[in-house]
Amino acid sequence: MATWDRNKNILLELVKLPGNEQCADCGAPEPDWASYKLGIFVCLNCSGTHRNLPAVSRIKSIRLDFWDDDLVEFMKATGNAAAKKLYESSVPVFYYRPQHQDCAVLKEQWIRAKYERREFTAEGLHFQQAYCSGYYEGILWKKGKNKKQFLKRRFLLSQKDFTLKYFTKEDSSRSPKAVIAIKDLNAAFQPEKIGHMHGLQITYMQENHTRNLFVYHDNGQEIVSWFNAIRAVRYAYLQKALPKAADSELLPLITKSSLKEGYMEKTGPKQCELFKKRWFILSSKDRKLLYFKSPLDAVELGAVFIGPESLGYSVRESQPKSTRGNKWKYGVTMVTPDRQFVFMCEQERDQKEWIEAFRQVISQPMLPQDYATEASLKRR
Ligand SMILES: [Zn+2]
């Protein structure tokens, strides 16, 4: 019993040290679990993935399990910072390192890449060829026009001409159904919306309108490889487009998740039109609020540019007294230099979250590319 208490106390001190105080894999604070085979402290969530990899990792609770002296010594001698130096020694700069709020497939594949494939050490570097070569070709399930129907499509990513193409037929000898410029492309995992654990949303511009593609691959490693291959080509494109920019400026521009998505009711410019329920996506990357008839639509119905306060943009709770025809009662008024937009939310919590998200975009300083976005939306 004395050993039990003593070792538990040593571990509870160890886990407070810099590096150990965050999960070794996803950065979640105050990890409660440890891999005594790798010498790292991890969160409950990541410990679940480690349990599935018994050949490379073994998990114990630092509070509830018994620890032998030699295992405690090993934890003391290793720890998160030392393990990071070893297992993350050659992570490509564009490679997406997941955070605890990210989806399961990103976190699981990051853990498998690090410890199972040793992808970022000299032994496993060959695994990186899949997404580092500037060329990727393969079959993905792509959502078709009909609801919920996914079809096999061949996709081809090429750094040579900075495009992503897809083909209706499985062979790529015929002309592509679409040629998407890497310039305006974004990719983000959206498992809940797409209804598949590996669901990836690809967004791009076509004739000044935002279009969405929804794809997945049954294999988790494959879809994360696609995601990182797209990131690699986006990074190469940005380096070419902005040759003077530092990596710290380019990395946030590679891909970005939407700031907030969800249903709101929307009225027309006179604010006396009937309210219609629409699916909204707010992106801080290009300062756009897009709306769609439903979450998995390919083409937006409209887009609103969200500028900064200094250019006359603001947001507030509640709606003008004259509004009617709304089913939902929690109003959000978005003021732009041209007009006011009135949105209605179903829940008070949604209203708070939307206002918070709008404020975040309004408080961002305008970047050179934002002026181009603003002008292109005004041209419509
Ligand atoms: Zn974690």
Question: What do these coordinates show?
Answer:
- This protein has 380 residues and is an alpha+beta fold.
- It has 3 domains: 2-126, Annexin V, domain 1 (Orthogonal Bundle); 130-254, Pleckstrin-homology domain (PH domain)/Phosphotyrosine-binding domain (PTB) (PH-domain like, Roll); 260-378, Roll (PH-domain like), CATH 2.30.29.30.
- It has 11 helices and 17 strands.
- The chain has a 7-stranded antiparallel β-sheet with strand order 7-6-5-4-10-9-8. The protein has a 7-stranded antiparallel β-sheet with strand order 14-13-12-11-17-16-15, with helices on both faces. It has a 3-stranded antiparallel β-sheet with strand order 2-1-3.
- α1 runs parallel beside α3 and α8 packs across α9.
- The site of zinc ion has 9 residues, from α2.
What's the short version?
With 380 residues, the protein is an alpha+beta fold. It is built from 11 helices and 17 strands.
Global morphology: globular
Task: Give the full name of the CATH homologous superfamily of the largest domain.
Answer: Arf GTPase activating protein
Show unreliable segments.
Answer: none
Structural class: alpha+beta
Helix content: 25-40%
The CATH topology annotation of the largest domain reads as: Annexin V, domain 1
Overall mean confidence score, pLDDT: 94
What radius of gyration results from the CA coordinates?
24 Å
* Sheet with most strands: 7 strands, antiparallel
CATH class categorisation of the largest domain: Mainly Alpha
Separation, N- and C-terminal Cα atoms: 74 Å
Widest sheet: strand ordering: 7-6-5-4-10-9-8
Named once each, the bound ligands are:
zinc ion
**Level-2 CATH architecture of the largest domain:** Orthogonal Bundle
